[in-house]
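new request in #modeling-help
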Amino acid sequence: MKPQGLLTRIALALGLVFLYVPIVSMIVFSFNNSRLVTVWDAAHSPTLKWYGVLLHNEQILTAAWL
Amino acid sequence: MRLSQAMGRRLIAGVPTLWLLVLFLIPFLIVFRISFSEVRLAIPPYTPLLSWHHGAPHFEVHWSAYSFLFTDPMYVSSYLYSLKVAAVSTVCCLLIGYPMAYAIARSGAATRPLLLMLIVLPFWTSFLLRVYAWIGLLKNNGVINNVLLSLGVIHHPLALLQTDFAVYIGIVYSYLPFMILPLYANLEKHDPALLEAAADLGARPARAFAAITLPQSIPGIAAGSLLVFIPAVGEYVIPTLLGRPDQLMIGRVLSDEFFENRDWPVASAVAILILLLLIVPILLFQRLERRQLEAAQ
Amino acid sequence: MSPQPTPAGTEAVASAPDAAYVRVSDVSKKFGDFTAVDHVSLDIRRGEIFCLLGGSGSGKTTLLRMLAGFETPTTGRIEIDGQDLSHVPPYERPVNMMFQSYALFPHMSVEKNVGFGLEQEHLGRDAIRRQVGEILEIVKMSGYGARKPHQLSGGQRQRVALARALVKRPKLLLLDEPLAALDRKLREHTQFELLNIQQRLGVTFIVVTHDQEEAMTLGTRLGVMNHGRIVQVGTPSDIYESPASRFVADFIGSVNLFEGRVVANGADGLCITSADLGCTVRAERAAGSEHGATVWTAIRPEKIQISRAGAGGADGAQNENLVAGTVKEIAYMGDMSIYLVRLDSGSMLRVTLPNVLRGAERPIAREERVMLSWHGSSPVVLTE
């Protein structure tokens, strides 16, 4: 592969990482047991606890349906 | 009675024009009109333009809102700060987005749609959530600081949030696809034979890029830059969530004037001045679009 | 021998006049499993116009691209003026190319386009302007310097592309289907102009084309390619009059091909019986073939004479190079007529005759019985 082709491909890969790190980190931390979003509670995670809370939250559910 | 072709054409063009008129021009005129009033405790909370005194019409045009904006240093600095942030973000978007668009344009026909989808996909998630995600990454006990601390690279958390840096990241992050897509649309049309011809005539790859690819991509660069710069000037959410509390961008200023100070005239004047500031870039953008349309024919 | 190529335009390494200026040595190019160029060896002399002729997929374009430097040979060597340039990138070769699509830089004027190659050599602005002016004059495009490519016609663009490729006075100029995009009249005119310019500048040309007329007009020598191999190399006359195989005979011009068996092999040529043809062919200038061997006879349409059957009476014993048939189709082309004759054996023979007499009294008509004959030197005997 020509050198300039390789450089731009690396740039593309890094750029895609930049675009997806926040999204992926959100997904990862949705399984975090701790209330402190970004502090990984290794002892009790991963957990579906928050998904359970979501399904019982009236406000969010009605908002989603609308 | 059958509609003639000309009438039918006018009808079809007329519907969106009417839509623009009602939802765009009229609100603009309302804001324009309010900017020439003074605030007062009433409903509506601004002085009327036309009133009747003893049976004679009386026009009240106040320039106080505008003069206030020009004399109070906070407003001037907010405008300049907004322009600066938008400009820096645009340049960063360009520097990051150009190689990405180039790589996509040169990739195989099979992977290209996939890559384009990957660029656009983040748009399908909530904008607000993505900005909150950045808070989670940038805050003092956020992911970035935790990783750096645990690796021993730093010993005290870096203050990444509530800085200019965070705003730049937020704007570049949100507007990057707006830069990549027009750039890609332009780069994709380039004739690869031209680069071969340049090489054949003695140009090394870097020189061929500078002499052949770059000049031809200028319309794409201009389009992408304007698509980032114009909305970035008026950004509200990103600087509010990620930015400095001591230096506001003009979008926040406008919102504060309207909702907190309930000073509709000043808020309107702020809005009109934003528009004036952006007239030059907007006209440039329109001229660019028109030229590209002509070139395509 | 130093691997550094000399800059274009400077004096070349002294080479003997007959020595190969461009030498392609056993070059092959594979793309995965597909062999585009299959062990090709060629010697091209300085100052000649060499045409690579072949259909699509014959490998001619790939070979051209390897000469230009856009592809590297999988095996083999390419030498130009004594230097091995097989793996040298295109921007370091004293070779320039005229692209089929012209590939003019759309955002640059004609002058900048033509001067681009000179700018890469870091010449002064005055020198560039002078040389650009000279070459534009040679291609008859003086005065068009400020125009942009989209303001030019197809023929004008081609001349600019030619100027751009010649301005550096390269050792070798490659032309990719130079006349393909032009209409008929312009094509003829351009053919002669190209010849003129080549004579004037003395640059070695290698032309790639699928159009045999183009190749025959332009080329001092032709190389016919098929499936990645060179099938025959020679002057246009060699290739037309003495094709080496049925493929070449059929590819260039029209030809009548008949299968037959050798029955006599003597000093005065070969005697071949052919059921398809329905007569005996005596080929005077044919190499010895084994008695009984199966061969093909090729006779060009213009070498056959038509006469009315019955006129002058049959020559009796001589059933050689003579056959009877019925005219089925006549195509009047103005300068000549093409006759399709159905032989008694059932095969079709194609004959072309120039229309020598204006308003001939009783021209040969459809369904007429005719006798077809040809001189003994006309048939070409092919073994493959």
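bot summary: The first helix of chain C runs from residue 60 to 68.
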